[in-house]
Design brief:
- The chain is mainly alpha-helical and 409 residues long.
- The chain has one domain.
- It is built from 18 helices and no strands.
- The longest helix is centred in the first third of the chain and has 40 residues.
- The radius of gyration is 22 Å and the shape is globular.
């Protein structure tokens, strides 16, 4: 699948560029594509420099958590659920605890912590893989749920809106919460259908029901807060929980007489080894995406969507926010740039800007996640992972449109 996808980016870009050259008399398109190719290669290295430090830091703390028995305890706690969702993973396997930590970090919007934990979890699942080049069912479920981007505290979105002068930066909080919940639920249901998982099992229903109750309670509580207080709570909770998690690891390990400094260094060395293997995968994917975008293929798709929507007689205001949604699966930095561009050109509280912010908060950089997570363990055959992850992204986009018309339409 990755071979077809990667080749497809270049072939579509070539067709689009040829059309612009021959039919629109625009020979500069090829220069833009080559420029984008080298720019994405440079960006890959810049991303890797940041990732080296982040992976080294968090895998160091994770090794402390492992030595303290925290990961093992989480695995035992979630064994009843994951033995049904991931029947190929043995009960109590360390991967289950790491997956739990990863989901928690993602939900809190702690991307810097979530990625290293997720890579550690993927490596643990790879140890159980009988065919190392092919993704297992458990790895696919983990990646799709990771890429579906369940985010309870979208602090970064608030920051972008604040920078652009929004009077109420947290205005999109509840829309994002609803849209990201739809994305994650869709990802789970699609993978469950393909893998024939029994979601109606009493244990699974109990866990999903509990999560739903917590989410509804949280939404109800947060809806009672003023916008100023909501912004303060969102920022405080995210950072407090992050530092609290680190402190918990250190205290628990110390009580169990774990040499925390030595454990941290041991894990940090592993982080370095993981990071250095990622660069080829990042260069391959980001360069393909860059060429695709520079060729004008993305603009052509948007023009077609606008024409189709207007010909049906529907409101086409949402089309102005689609660039963020369409680029997000490929590049987080490009999606952020398009979001800020939409805020600047349309107005930070315009319908297009509010919708773009909601889409940004409820979807994920699917192909980046795919390249990093599978690349870290050498998987080359993603099977149906891409299709399921994109289905979750599509659900997030459609839910964003529906929710924003409900809230702001």
């Amino acid at each position: 699948m990755l071979n077809i996808l990667w080749l497809g980016f270049f072939l579509i870009a070539a067709i689009s560029a040829s059309w612009r050259w021959l039919m629109m008399s625009d020979p500069t398109v090829f220069a833009l594509m080559i420029e984008s190719l080298f720019a994405m290669a440079k960006l890959s290295v810049e991303v890797m420099l940041v990732m080296f430090g982040t992976l080294t830091l968090w895998l160091g703390f994770l090794r402390i958590a492992e030595r303290a028995g925290i990961v093992e305890s989480l695995a035992r706690l979630l064994t009843p659920l994951f033995t049904r969702l991931m029947p190929d993973v043995p009960a109590g396997h360390p991967a289950l605890g790491l997956i739990t930590l990863n989901f928690t970090a993602n939900a809190l919007g702690l991307d810097n912590a979530a990625t290293p934990i997720g890579l550690k979890a993927m490596r643990a699942l790879q140890e159980l893989n009988p065919m190392p080049l092919f993704a297992t069912n458990a790895q696919i479920l983990f990646l799709v749920l990771n890429a579906s981007s369940l985010t309870l505290l979208p602090v970064s979105i608030f920051m972008y809106r604040l920078q652009q002068g929004a009077a109420d930066p947290t205005l999109v909080f509840l829309p994002i919460l609803l849209a990201t919940s739809a994305s994650t639920l869709t990802g789970l249901l699609v993978v469950a259908a393909v893998q024939r998982l029994k979601l109606w099992d009493p244990v699974v229903m109990a866990w999903l029901g509990s999560v739903a109750i917590v989410l509804i309670s949280l939404m109800t509580l947060l809806a009672t807060l003023s916008t100023a207080m909501l912004a303060v709570v969102s920022s405080l909770v995210g950072n407090l929980l992050l530092f609290g998690l680190i402190l918990f690891f250190l205290v628990a390990a110390t009580l169990r007489r774990v040499p925390v400094y030595e454990a941290f260094i041991e894990g940090a060395k592993e982080g370095y080894e993981v990071a250095k293997n990622l660069l080829p995968y990042l260069v391959a994917m980001l360069c393909a995406v860059g060429v695709f975008r520079a060729s004008g293929a993305l603009d052509s798709v948007l023009s077609g969507v606008r024409w189709l929507v207007e010909s049906i007689g529907w409101d086409s205001r949402f089309v102005d926010a689609l660039p963020t949604a369409m680029v997000k699966p490929f590049s987080g930095s490009a999606a952020r740039a398009l979001l800020i561009e939409t805020m600047s050109n349309k107005g930070v509280d315009s319908f297009a800007a509010l919708l773009a912010a909601t889409m940004q908060g409820s979807t994920e950089t699917t192909f980046y996640v795919l390249a990093v997570y599978f690349g870290a363990v050498g998987i080359q055959r993603a099977r149906y992972a891409v299709a399921c992850a994109l289905a979750a992204d599509l659900a997030g986009v459609l839910a964003s449109i529906a929710v924003c018309y409900w809230f702001f339409g």
